[in-house]
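cron nightly-structures :: item 1 of 1
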Amino acid sequence: MSQPLTHSEFSSIMSNHFFLLEKKPHVALSFSGGSDSLALLILLNSWIKKRDGILTLIHFNHKLRKESYLEAVFTKKLSKKFNLNFKILNWDNEKPKSAIMFKARHLRYKKIIDFCKKEKIITLMTAHHHNDSLETYLMRKERKFSTLGLAGIPTRNNRDNVQILRPLINIGKERLIKTCNKYKYKWIEDSSNKNHRFERIRIRNSITNFSKKEKSKIINDFNKCKKANYGIERKIGEFFVDNLKFQNFGEFLVDKQKFLDEPKSNQIEIMKRILVTCSGGVYPPRTRSITLMLKQIEKLKRLNFTINSCVIELNKKSIHFFREYQKIKREIKKETIVRKGTPLLWDDRFEIKSMLSDLKCFIFDDSIWIKIKKDFNFIRLNKKINYRILKTLPVLQIKRKIMIPFLSDEKEMLSNGVSVIFSPKIPLTKKNF
């Protein structure tokens, strides 16, 4: 029979996962008001105090349900009871009519991480537990995800230089409920957990109807997938270290023969990773599309085509990947203002900061190049930047000064208070995208 989670057990979990934290850690907790996040609050608050750290509660009010306001009030009262910092973030924009759970989750993470970055909090914790991870596994299995996608929710990952830690990921929900009951704290039940329109709720309810034998088999299959995942992750990581070259202006280059020597399943995962990171997007192309592309790579010596908003150029020795310019032209505003002190993620790939003044950011085009070619062409040729790749970079202007990241002198850009780094939503190192 499951027991409440003790403070000493939680401390062991924190140590065994080798989480990297400051000596006096400042941790943000994404708090919903449910039993999961309440149990984590109870345990984490005690753990933080023993280390003279700071705990900040962050509640995101989706404003999708009538009781959303009550959850925000509950968070505020609980924060005061625990004597904690807290922040209520709101979804004030118009709500979408489709894929609302996905879009809500995406915005919630973005807003919370933006707050963490603003407050210089490098660690965010969420109360995802074993049941959540098992549900994710079953959802992805139904959609026929590959092995890497079937590993459930990772214990840790990074987003925009904020580490997201999930210390309860191997703990069952029943134990978290018992933890709240042990310390006599009440939580709020989310009414959307009864809404069968949502896939996760349907999966959750189906699990409760499984027999003990069926549950045991699912958990066993899930654990096998996680084990296989770690092996594949290690091999792909080794491949990237040994055979991938990356240019900070957004070009990826892979040794063709070494790539073709990999097992087909690894080739597919390598392609998915590079294409997602290169495009600045979130989702990879379908496995079927990649499989068709691999057949072309095997047969042809030279090839040039687009997939997943990226251009792939193939020659005898290497495979090159870079962003598709036409996609930028269709989707990005021709001119954007980067406000002083407010970072802008341009094309979902480049983080642009201007610390001294506002600057203008343009999409590259031939007319701009005609005006600045004499100043930049020699540098472009010297750095061996293909013109098609050059066109995928932003053009920056402060007053009359024109700068192109990775072509303009870095010291000159810094003297103008400008920095640009390649910072896609999904880096190559992120698991299970």
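cron nightly-structures :: done
The chain has a mean pLDDT of 89.
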